[in-house]
Amino acid sequence: QVRLVESGGGLVQPGGSLRLSCAASGFTFSSSHMSWYRQAPGKEREWVGFIDTTGGVINYAVSVKGRFTISRDNAKNTLYLQMNSLKPEDTAVYYCKAVRFNSWGQGTQVTVSS
């Protein structure tokens, strides 16, 4: 059973940083491409970025490119999202997802506000 547990969210001031983690279990993490998504209040869930199985290919949405960094540790079955220079418009619930499975975790809330 695919299980994804996001953590690391919180309240941060504009310009601040947060590092999100996604602990994966129930599938072979090292063989799975992964993505981050986010959903702001009243908006559709949107794609944030993608990382392939080895970290050799990483893509970002235009809105976060240059500020966010996706990485993974296959030995720890964990996906990361380093978020820098945060803006109020980054406020959302953040989710990780294995590309080949239609399963979602509970997400972690990120709020950027002064």
- Widest sheet: strand ordering: 2-10-9-4-5-6
Q: How much helix is in the residues?
A: under 10%
Helix/sheet category? mainly beta
Overall geometric form? globular
Mean pLDDT over all positions? 97
Strand content: over 45%
Distance between the termini: 40 Å
User: Which regions contain 5 or more consecutive residues with pLDDT less than 50?
Assistant: none
Question: Explain this structure to me?
Answer:
The chain has about 110 residues and is an all-beta fold. It is about 0% helix and about 50% strand. It has strands at about 5, 10, 20-25, 35-40, 45-50, 60, 70-75, 80-85, 90-100, 110. It is globular. The protein starts with a strand and ends with a strand.
Summarize the structure.
The chain is mostly beta strands and about 110 residues long. It is about 0% helix and about 50% strand. A hairpin with a 6-residue loop joins strand 5 and strand 6 (about 60).
Topology:
Elements: E1 3-7, E2 10-12, E3 18-25, E4 34-39, E5 46-51, E6 58-60, E7 68-73, E8 78-83, E9 92-98, E10 108-112
